[in-house]
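Quick one: examine this chain and its backbone structure tokens and tell me how the chain folds. Here goes:
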Amino acid sequence: MPQRLLPLALFASCAALIGLWCLSRTAHAVAMPPGNETIAKSMQQMNDALEALSKGITAANREAALEELAKFESAVIGAKAAVPASATKVDEKKRAAFVADYRKTLIDALDFAAAAERAVIDGKYKDADTLVRNKLGGLKSTGHGKFKTEGGK
């Protein structure tokens, strides 16, 4: 593996381990946060990265695209560790499943982002662009519809 790609491989490995750790936590012992500051900050970082990536991924902006994908992935991990305020509106018996679905949706986002990153590394810029525009964009709309409270709080 080229030495340049080692930090990306290490980041991906760490992200996977953090994801597994989050999944191993007991779903029924979810504490409700006082606010959604962590999620709001993470979602803003994700939106900023998607906005930058939506301009298109090409060989000319390869390094910038990799940087934005890393920012996106980092933000997903931050959001995934928090509980959305909308969970407080879900019946207590269904809350753990709701939170698990929230986390799984963010894991899907992380999977798509990692696939886009791999495509950029492999020089498959059109594939990366398609993943960002179609998969991540669609997941954003679906996720907001399911998990976002009114007024974005």
Remarks:
- Residues 23-32 have pLDDT under 50 and may be disordered.
